[in-house]
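Encode chain A's predicted structure.
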Amino acid sequence: MAFCQIGVSCEPKVIGVNNGIYQCEIDKKQFGNEKYYTDFVLSFSREESINDCLNRAKKPLLANLLKKAKITDFMGYAPNLRGIPFAVSKNALRILQKFNLGEFNTIELKFSNSEVGSYYLIWFPFIEADMINFKQSILYYRSRLTQPKEYHLVGNYEEYLALFEKYRFNTFFKKISLNASKENCDFVQMRVGGNFISKRLLEALIDNGMTGLTVKTQIELDYK
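Encoded structure for chain A:
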């Protein structure tokens, strides 16, 4: 099944700011003091129930738009909460919910310094490395867009890490084979590969004029 690796746009013309990362920041003031704010952010990196983390969130969670930030349907935010790749508009969430997302949860986000309506942080569970059938997966390395792809087969996670250590962020998946019950899901978040959506979901987002999303590469995703 064809999937596309996605991310939020970092182009200043699209997002309005020059940091290349995000358009809004979670408002520290709502937590009362720095410790509560830090505990909330770090809780997403600890090995604890995601429900505990989500329950700890203010309802709604408050954020501030950066100066000159443009409003897009998919937005980068800070600080990053593990498992939550972006903030989405109500319209984007409505489209996403028409597809098979598998397990997910949301946190409503409101902007303290803007009349823009609610956005939503969407949490997705990670596909862990032990769920990937590396022997049936294909990776490639390419240092520049003008250079040909150099394909690699790896036997296990350790060999993948060695390849990634050698080529770093120029290492990409062409095919991912999963030993996981994610078949027919339209959104897959992988700890070692990134965020992927089905081509049918991508086409729906494009057809409905959703903004702020960027497509990095296309892959084949299959199941053992």
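Residues 127-223 form one domain.
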